[in-house]
Amino acid sequence: MSLADDIALANRLAEAAGAAIRPYWRGNLGLESKSDESPVTLADRAAEEAMRRILTAEAGRDGIQGEEFGIERESATRRWVLDPIDGTTSFVAGRPIFGTLIALLEDGFPVLGVIDQPILGERWVGATGQATTFNGRPCATRACRELSDALLATTSPSLFDDHSAEHFMALAGKTAHRRMVWGGDCYNYALLASGQIDLVCESGLKLHDFAALVPVVEGAGGTMADWNGEPLHAASEGHVIALGDPARLEDVVEALACGH
Question: Considering the chain, what percentage of its residues have pLDDT values greater than 90?
Answer without folding.
Answer: 72
